[in-house]
Design goal:
Helices cover about 35% and strands about 35% of the residues. It is an alpha+beta fold and about 160 residues long. It has one domain: Nuclear Transport Factor 2, Chain: A (Roll). The chain has a six-stranded mixed sheet with strand order 2-1-6-5-4-3. Helix 4 (about 70-80) runs antiparallel to helix 5. The longest helix has 17 residues, at about 15-35. The chain is globular. The relative contact order is 0.19.
Length: about 160
């Protein structure tokens, strides 16, 4: 249904040019999420000064006024863990500079273990088309801890503890 949801949203007759652009950018963001061979492209869709926050865990992966490098390092580290990850748009809605999107996710480890899940994100875009705010609602995931995470994430989580009280 992902193409149907996106096509229905992008075809709405009352969209502003900004909303149409932001829907297109969200689709590109979703595709880039799964391109593990070019994860830097996914990271580059975010503004240098961005906020990436998971409200249900009360955890910042990037915070306005702080470097987003730990988050970038974590995304790059994902390539050590996963052989495949893919998002599919379930529903999507744009209003002004913000897009609300519900995603279905499939992830496969390098060892071949697969799992599926879902999340919802509210993405805010600047005039240059960069994501300045990503508030993602991830259901059952606990708040990350350095001692429990995979080695590829430990350094990132330790750095992020500085901005997460």
């Amino acid at each position: 249904m992902s193409e149907d949801a996106y096509e229905a949203a992008i075809s709405a007759p009352n969209l502003t040019a900004e909303e149409k652009r932001n829907l297109e950018l969200t689709k590109a963001w979703s595709v880039a999420y799964g391109d593990l061979d070019n994860i830097e492209h996914f990271c580059d869709l975010y503004a240098d000064s961005t906020e990436i926050y998971t409200p249900l865990q009360d955890w910042y992966y990037a915070k306005q006024g702080h470097s987003n490098q730990p988050w970038r390092d974590g995304e790059i580290g994902i390539t050590e863990l996963f052989g495949h990850r893919e998002e599919k748009i379930v529903s999507i809605l744009a209003q002004g500079d913000t897009v609300a999107v519900q995603m279905a996710v499939e992830i496969t480890s390098k060892e071949g273990q697969s799992r599926t899940g879902a999340f919802a994100a509210f993405l805010k875009f600047d005039a240059d088309g960069k994501i300045t705010s990503d508030h993602s609602f991830l259901g059952r995931h606990p708040r990350p801890t350095a001692d429990q995470g995979p080695p590829a994430y430990r350094a990132m989580i330790e750095k992020l503890q500085e901005i997460n009280p």
